Amino acid sequence: SFTPNLDAFADESLQFQKAYVQVPLCGPSRASLFTGRTPESMHYYFHNLEDVRDEAIVRQSPTITLPLFFRAKGYTTIGIGKVFHSGENLRT
Questions:
Q1: Could you tell me the end-to-end alpha-carbon distance of the chain, in angstroms, rounded to an integer?
Q2: Residue 82: left if φ>0, alpha if ψ -120 to 50, beta else—which one?
Q3: Lower CB count within 10 Å: N or C terminus of the chain?
Q4: Residues classed as catalytic
């Protein structure tokens, strides 16, 4: 094995063999994950970078985002990379 530490970690972890998404694009799927709302309920089906950013869709959601939920429960939350492109944890 080329990665014994990674293999050992995988042996102790829950492994998912299949993954399902509501929309085959990262933005709508990510917004759905972070708000608990379906892309249909947010009218977010595709990327239109000229008019709509992920953050704008999440801002319109009447729901607290997943990072804010955990923060309210006392956890420290940090968004890096494609969590929220603007780098801020957003709430309506």
A1: 48
A2: alpha
A3: N
A4: 26, 85
